[in-house]
Amino acid sequence: MKKRYCYFGLSLLLVFVLLAAGCTSEQTGGDNSAPETNEGPADSDSSPDLEATLRVWIMETGSPEEAQAYFERINAQFNERYPNVQVDVQFIPWLSAHQNLITAIAGGNAPDVSELGTTWVPEFAAMGALLEMNAYINDWGLADGWVPALEEAGTYMENLYGIPWYAGLRQLIYNKDIFEQAGVEVPETYDELLAVSEAIMQNTDAYAFPAVGISQHFVLPMVWHFGGELAVLEEGDDNELRWVSKINEAEAVEAFKFYTDLYKAGYVPEGAVNWSVLDTRQAFAQGDLAMTIDVAPGINAMINENSEIADKIGVAPLPSKANNASFVGGSNLAVFKQSSHPELAAAYVNVLLQEDNIAEWAQLTGFFPGTLAGLDNPVFHEDEHLKVFADALVHGRSYPASPSWGQFEGDNLFVTAVQEIMLGNKTAQEALDEVAEAMNNAFEKE
Amino acid sequence: MRNKWLPWLLLSPALFLIVSLTVYPLLNTFFISFREYNMYSLVTGMSEWIGFEHYKQVLSDPFFWTVLRNTVMLGFACVCATMLVGLLVALLLNTNFKGSKLLGIVILIPWVFPSIAGGIVWRWMFNDQYGVVNYGLTRLGLDMFDGFAWFNQPFTAFFVIFLMVVWQSFPFIAVSLLAGFQSISSSLYEAAEIDGANSWVKLTHITLPLLKPLLLILFILSTIWNFKIFDQIYVMTEGGPARGTYVLSLYSWSEAFNVLNFGKASAIAMLMFLVLMAFIISYIRLFREDKEVRA
């Protein structure tokens, strides 16, 4: 009997040892600093023979093998200077990235460098999770070299936290055949858009304009076009700058009303209340929709869906009223405060920003570089489609860089309002009054 | 006496896992629901105790009651339909017709289908312009379904979600019940037949009463599953249109990971837990009382 207990004891011990080993290996994986080397000044961090592991999170792209190969080349470049630093690049899906990052930050296990969606930068900066990059960009001589909208999106409280990496923006995409059939030209103003849409509905089988429910990036820039603002920084009674929503003011209401009226006028099918950009792509690719608003990679997606559409696609600037600024979204690179090698992490970001590297990555993802030097690359100006996007990029705008903005999008705040107006549950003013209230409630807590 | 500690020692690995993976998160959710726990708390680890504030806020919000009603109605409808369809299919398979073995395997397909993939397929099937359902219904002469937008109204959207959930969960019930049927001794049916019982009487007086413990477990399991439906709705409507198809699990998740209001999200999760417990306890009582009467 005694012997058997002994075995039980032993196997139990083994279980605990394994569990403990599991825990510790997890921790070293997260902490990844060479133990007790952190006492010296930060400068010692960048000495070339330092041994360390750098964890880098990049969002998954449409072409995983190419992305993998790209980062192998980047790591090789980085290792020329820091031969003993191992860089561990992980590709994470966009859908779960926000949640993964939050979990990692809360667990004290954030990566050293991560790609962030532009709206997440202020959110994570406000949490105190990101390293402020002003000193580094001055060192790199890049202080003024950014695409303005991305720089704005990466800035929180006048400091740069998110380094502009690549940018995407939407332009008007139209079907040349349908336009010819309807006998119309590309609309340059919103009044022309109405006339063109009407002509398309009268003279062709196609629907005219993608006034769909799930696409805040269609309707929000229209607020700017109509001369309104989404939110502005105002000084409060306590002399502190605070965001204040302007989305229920006259111009914004007019823009929302214009957009939803396009739906009500039947320029899209009734079910478009629940259409997202994926549905508009599908409909456009099938020749059922004359115009759409999409990013440059969206064109490739449509051609993949139906190759016959390829030579019918035209790209034009968005219609204009007070202006026609596009919403510039995209990605920033950030170094996390929890990183134990901030100098190395910044050096790695710098490698990614080199003109050729940033241009190559932008091409690979189908977007545009976040630096003006990278954007100068001829590949973005020779192609007739890409040129329209690249020209509009520098005049584009970003959404208010408030920490709460990501929550508004995640919570479908604007989408819900658009759908409620489309379904006739609320008037534009009623729906937007509620949105403004929700926005201001969130802003007050910042 | 030396044996006193041995059982605990042997239990400890399992206990350790259960406590760390189940009890700790549950208690933590409970505590967070009484705190102002937001995105800043994530980094600093600090949060303020605010008592029942979140519960007050949630319970006084009419939207919560709408979501609760949606959850209970959808969950209850799914449980009933799943049990009914499962029972009918089990009865069918139990008749041992030619090919019933093959059919028994085929009906398992929806069950092993990943719910995300299933959701995407169903969303496409019910697409207003290109969906096979509208195409089929229109071909049958029902012109009102030409371009019919299933996901425009909460009711029709919920109907599609309901169909998908039932499609996905009935096979498990059917297979479990079939196993239950086959465990009942055939002599009982033979005796009943001699007494002149028809199929209906046999079903209601022999099969179902004998399977009561199994039915109870299946009821509880499908209640739990159907009240925490998340992936199907997330994929098919993402809670839309205009938050019309929110259920408690989606609401709690959205408050946590979109709004980063973890305190309120935890309060919603705790309320959802209470609702589920209420249902499960009432099931158990319902079945138990019955037993006492018979005894």
> How much of the residues of chain B is beta strand, in percent?
under 5%
Structural class of chain B: mainly alpha
Strand content of chain A: 5-15%
> What's the shape of chain B?
globular
* Cα radius of gyration of chain B in angstroms: 24 Å
Strand order in the largest sheet of chain A: 2-1-3-12-6-13
- Oligomer state of the chains in this structure: heterodimer
Helix content of chain B: over 70%
Secondary-structure element sequence of chain B? Answer: HEHEHHHHHHHHHHHHH
Largest interface: A-B, 41 and 34 residues
Family (chain A): Belongs to the bacterial solute-binding protein 1 family.
Signal peptide (chain A): 1-20
InterPro entries (chain A): SBP (IPR006059)
Organism (chain A): Caldalkalibacillus uzonensis
Describe this structure in words.
Chain A: Keywords: Signal, Transport. Chain A: This is N,N'-diacetylchitobiose transport system substrate-binding protein. Chain A: Residues 1-20 form the signal peptide. Chain A: It comes from Caldalkalibacillus uzonensis. The complex is a heterodimer of chains A (446) and B (295). Chain A has 446 residues and is an alpha+beta fold. In chain A, 50% of the residues lie in helices and 15% in strands. Chain A has 20 helices and 13 strands. A 6-stranded mixed sheet of chain A has the order 2-1-3-12-6-13. A 3-stranded antiparallel sheet of chain A has the order 10-7-11. In chain A, α2 (64-81) crosses α13 (342-353) and α9 (216-225) packs across α10 (250-264). The model of chain A is unreliable at 1-44 (pLDDT under 50). Chain B is mainly alpha-helical and 295 residues long. Chain B is built from 15 helices and 2 strands. Chain B has helices at 6-32, 39-44, 53-59, 62-94, 100-106, 109-112, 115-125, 132-139, 154-182, 186-194, 199-210, 212-227, 231-236, 248-257, 262-294, and strands at 35-36, 48-49. A two-stranded antiparallel sheet of chain B has the order 1-2. In chain B, α4 runs parallel beside α9 (154-182) and α4 crosses α12 (212-227). Chain B is globular and about 75 Å long. At the A-B interface, α1, α3, α4, α11 and α19 of A face α1 and α2 of B.
